[in-house]
Specification:
149 residues, mainly alpha, Helix Hairpins
């Protein structure tokens, strides 16, 4: 007789896969939030750069020239561009992390479906085995009853 998978063991594996999926869902939600926050910081940094550029361009349109003021405006523009660059890199990293978490969640979802299908198959096989045993026992009793004088 072929060995059958124990549905109780597979049920434990299903619980483990459900826990892993829950952890993957939590990680995905955290990664999504981190990505949204990084995008918001990037947008704010780009807005700051735009304001600094407008200030610089407004200064250049003025008739006089103040070197100290020009140096301060240029330094502010460069600093805000550096912050925007860092925010852009942070946004890319958060986007990449979100994609990795999404892939991990999809994989965990596939494992859950696979183990649930295995559990259903094992339960069906176990039920079939019990039915075969019951029919065999019934057949033995009928044969015994026929064989008795």
């Amino acid at each position: 007789m072929a060995s059958r998978a124990d549905p109780r063991q597979i049920a434990k594996l299903v619980k483990v896969q459900h826990a892993r999926r829950a952890a993957a869902e939590a990680a995905l939600a955290a990664a999504r939030d981190a990505e949204m926050q990084a995008r918001a910081r990037e947008e704010a940094a780009l807005d700051d750069v735009s304001v600094a550029q407008d200030d610089w361009l407004g200064f250049l349109e003025l008739p006089g020239f103040a070197p100290d003021y020009a140096r301060a405006l240029a330094a502010r523009l460069l600093a805000r561009e550096a912050v925007a660059g860092e925010a852009r890199e942070e946004c890319r990293a958060a986007d990449s992390a979100h994609l990795r978490c999404q892939e991990a969640w999809r994989l965990s979802e596939a494992y859950v479906k696979l183990t649930e299908a295995s559990l259903a198959r094992a339960r069906r096989d176990a039920g079939r085995g019990r039915e075969e045993k019951r029919l065999g026992d019934l057949s033995d009793r009928i044969t015994y009853a026929w064989m008795r004088p």
